Amino acid sequence: MPLTDAHCHLQAPELAGVLPEVWKCDITRWVVNGLHPSDWPQVAALARSQPRVRPCFGLHPWYLKDRPATWLEELEGIVSEHPGCGLGEFGLDRWMQDADVADQLSVFKAHWHLGLQRDLPMTVHCLKAWGALQEALEAMPLPQRGFLLHAYGGPVEMVAGLVRRGAYFSFSTSFLAANRSAKRAAFQQMPLDRVLIETDAPSMAPPSECNAFPMTDPATGRTVNHPANLRAAAASLAELRGVPALELEGILEDNFHRWWGRDRRGIV
Ligand SMILES: [Zn+2]
């Protein structure tokens, strides 16, 4: 059954050495998100070399302070050059140090309006900024195709409202950790037709007991999430929902196509 990693960063230098084996693993496609204008060319290059990569371009809230003044023109330009791309990742984050939420909101809205104007699939990052996200979504037009809240870690109580606004939610490999039961609880209750799965590789590795592809960055000593861990997220979500694995994978595939739309390049 085809399987899509709905959110990852295969352009990350930590993954460069394993990409040849990533292309051979049994994942059908990867939604690869840029973080800053400086890594957009790498995302574009990956999409050129590997047609199963779905490129997304965006400015992550952690990197707002060193953005060039021309970032929005650059974003519009790269999006125009890549028909069939998405926007991401961008979003709101009160978890980070020195969060400037007003600035985050202006960048969020700029992405959102571009996404609506060009009818692009959008991927939103939100950490501890659920009230601000809700207010922003109430004040803006909504994309007909919906949008993805990646690695949804918000309250269960917000899920119904977000579903009404068109949200899809991706289940992360990191949610397999024993202490992430609150995040798993939200995924237990979501409508199954709004769920996707992701690795966020090279970040958000599963706990070591579920990590079949252990990998460490020799430069930092940190654990690197191998993209092949996606299968563990699929298996865990199937168990959580009490749905046979193959049936769940079929649902995930339908959800991906409903959100992303038909690939304009005519590739899987
Ligand atoms: Zn990410």
- CATH architect. name: Alpha-Beta Barrel
**Number of H- or I-type helical stretches:** 9
Largest sheet: 8 strands, parallel
Q: Give the H and E element order.
A: EHEHEHEHEHEHEHEHH
Residue share in helix: 25-40%
Q: What is Rg?
A: 17 Å
Using the coordinates shown, work out and report the CATH topology. Answer: TIM Barrel
Could you state the CATH homologous superfamily?
Metal-dependent hydrolases
Strand order of the largest sheet: 1-2-3-4-5-6-7-8
Mean pLDDT: 95
Task: Please identify the structural class as seen in this structure.
Answer: alpha/beta
Instruction: List unreliable stretches of 5+ residues.
Output: none
Q: Class in CATH? A: Alpha Beta
Q: How far is it from the N-terminal to the C-terminal residue, by CA? A: 13 Å
In terms of DSSP E residues, the strand content is 15-25%
